[in-house]
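Support request, please re-run this one:
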Amino acid sequence: MWSFWIVCKALEVSARVERDVTMKTRLARFPFVKTLDQFDFSFQPALNEAQIRELAAARFVAHGENILLLGPPGVGKTHLAVSLGVAAILQGISVVFFTVADLVDLVQQDVKEDRLDRRLHALCTPKLLILDEMGYVPLDQRSAQFLFRLISRRYQKGSIILTSNKSYGEWGDVVSDYVLATAMLDRLLHYSTTINIRGESYRLREKRRAGVFHDLTAKPVKAGPSASRKTQGAGAIEADSRYDGL
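Re-run finished. Output below.
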């Protein structure tokens, strides 16, 4: 009798967990759902698979740390970001995904409707926020300042996974303000792990093999002397104090 009751309760808990994962995945707004097991690490041999799988344990979220994935288009940055988000959801962590371009569109609409503070509050709610494709579109001043406020509000309170095709030295061009870019990076990098992916594009490999695409000359994205770097405590970039109150 007790065994039957235990089995029923286990099934009830399992169903409840499954519903929770389904709901959190829907609310996350992922562009697709993929796991690390679907990532072809053999195609990106420079990546440390053990390190990526360690990050999937989501301990960085408990500590309010960030992950920054850098590299040219097509190397799997978004796949990795989504996979880490899915892994976090499976551990009961709330996640929200936005491309930076979509976020800029929302900011512009929110300014017109006077609900920018509400948006900021909403984006500070999830334990993990994923910002995809930083650097693909330039940010206007209002959007850049909003992004800085968002990063500042989440600093050491909520983790961010950010993907970018730009090196840190190029962020000043993206936000058209080198001081503000430095202030953003100061907070993002203080407690963070940077992973620089230097491999080929997944999307272009078949075209390249078929001879319909030839490599373009491109400036490599550099995050530093190593492919992966973790920073915390001292050594963060100095920021201009005039942005502290934004």
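The longest helix spans residues 2-28. The chain has one domain: 33-243.
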